[in-house]
Amino acid sequence: MFEAKPAIAVLGPAAQKDGAGAEDLEALAARIGKAAVDAGYGIITLGASPVSEAAARGAAGGRILAVTTEDDADGGERSPAPGGTHERRRTVLSGFEYVLDHADALILLPGADVPTLAFVMLVWAYGHTPAAPFRPIICLGPGWREAIASLADVVGLDRRARAMVTFA
């Protein structure tokens, strides 16, 4: 919940390749931001990546929470999204925790990277904590099914934890 209303975190790779693929990913992030806000959800982004900024631009006019950390390339010193709120955290882990405390669900964009997979592990850990709420994860695009299955197999996750993830 953000501002006492449901919110969705839109997360993508921290770094991306240049070219058409990057433009496509940013366009997807912007469409998701707009669709979520149009449906009454707030948007939460983490980091100062082009994908995070595109999701916030798409959500312009809605509720936006941009979470940055001192570990971001710009040291977390970015201005809030237009009409949005900016929350600066000290470390990536504290940024992850802050997002997880405020997001009702997470949408992971194509391009699995180590920070995004670490976030999945944190969501799974929260899901196994009795006091922490269940957070669904929606993974968009190719490659996720294999990456998530491998990660789940390595750490021996049960069916309940695996059920937090949906692929689209």
Plain-language structure description:
The chain is of the alpha/beta class. The protein has helices at residues 20-38, 50-58, 92-102, 114-127, 144-155, 159-162, and strands spanning 7-11, 42-46, 64-69, 85-89, 105-108, 137-139, 165-167. It is globular, with a radius of gyration of 15 Å. The model has no long low-confidence stretch (mean pLDDT 83).
The strand count comes to 7
Compute the separation of the termini in Å.
24 Å
Strand order of the largest sheet: 4-3-2-1-5-6-7
The helix fraction, in percent, is: 40-55%
Q: Main β-sheet: number of strands, strand sense, barrel status?
A: 7 strands, parallel
Percentage beta strand: 15-25%
Structural class: alpha/beta
In N-to-C order, the SSE pattern is EHEHEEHEHEHHE
Shape: globular
**Average pLDDT score:** 83
Low-confidence parts lasting 5 or more residues at pLDDT below 50? Answer: none
Measured on Cα atoms, how large is the radius of gyration?
15 Å
Q: DSSP helix count?
A: 6
